[in-house]
Amino acid sequence: MRLIHLTLFSLFVICIDGKRRCLTNCTITGLIGEPFNISDRCDQYTKANDCKVEVEFNYYDQRYTVIFSTAFVDYNYRSLYITITGFLLYRATFACGNSDNCATDFARKKVVDLSNRMINTGSVIKQLRPLLSEQRQSPLQCYDNEECTGICKIRIKTDKNQLDQRKCDEMSEPRVRVLDGSVPILDIECNRTKCNSFETVDQVKQILYQHNLTDINGRINRGQKNSISTLLLPILIILFIQLI
Ligand SMILES: *[C@@H]1O[C@H](CO)[C@@H](O)[C@H](O)[C@H]1NC(C)=O
Ligand SMILES: *[C@@H]1O[C@H](CO)[C@@H](O)[C@H](O)[C@H]1NC(C)=O
Ligand SMILES: *[C@@H]1O[C@H](CO)[C@@H](O)[C@H](O)[C@H]1NC(C)=O
Ligand SMILES: *[C@@H]1O[C@H](CO)[C@@H](O)[C@H](O)[C@H]1NC(C)=O
Fold it and tell me: Which residue positions does the secretion signal occupy (predicted)?
């Protein structure tokens, strides 16, 4: 349903407004804390429904990457990926059609905001490690599956605090993944006896919250919907229907 709305909205925008002029085929990398410039090498523009940008902060090697491209519909996703080997990655993916500069403006603001945020990666991982791993001689045991040759997994839908998946998953590494956007989830893979429990979920949420990585429910900025399009959408759809 939402996709239909978005498609109608995009069609409407094309009818009324033409397309956006978006920066494309452009990747910028910098050190966290370093200001953000759109270099001279980024000089390709293209017409599209939406301009898109992906901002990725890698706290492991203290670098950020910004990638500009195009999209068909609006979206606003965030994700967090943490492994007990020291990797902590934050990514925001944003696509917008309200102005030619909306994606570059978003990226500038995001890079400044994230650069100003102190994230103690060492402390986050030190606290997560005992929840996600253990020294063990015996085979791994997970919930809802007696013996596991892979790794225990639990996935929660964080908007409803509802269990989505709990099983023994294929071999992977202990990690925490948070997604926010249309389907907000918290996904934990762990290598500790019966660690795919609600207790682990609560403890992981607590750690992410304490370090300002998510709110207490495991959401990242509550998905930050685009307020303009949700407000204008019904009006625009009615106008659009009357036009055809
Ligand atoms: C993208 O840019 C690179 C250099 O910045 C260039 O070599 C490449 O051909 C470009 N790709 C397209 C599809 O324009
Ligand atoms: C942006 O430009 C400033 C000033 O020229 C420079 O100090 C900074 O390192 C540049 N940032 C990146 C990411 O290249
Ligand atoms: C899981 O833990 C066991 C026992 O500590 C270890 O031998 C194994 O390599 C670990 N597996 C992964 C995928 O981390
Ligand atoms: C979390 O953010 C709040 C407000 O932005 C700040 O006051 C607090 O010091 C931060 N906590 C940590 C652990 O960074």
Answer: 1-18
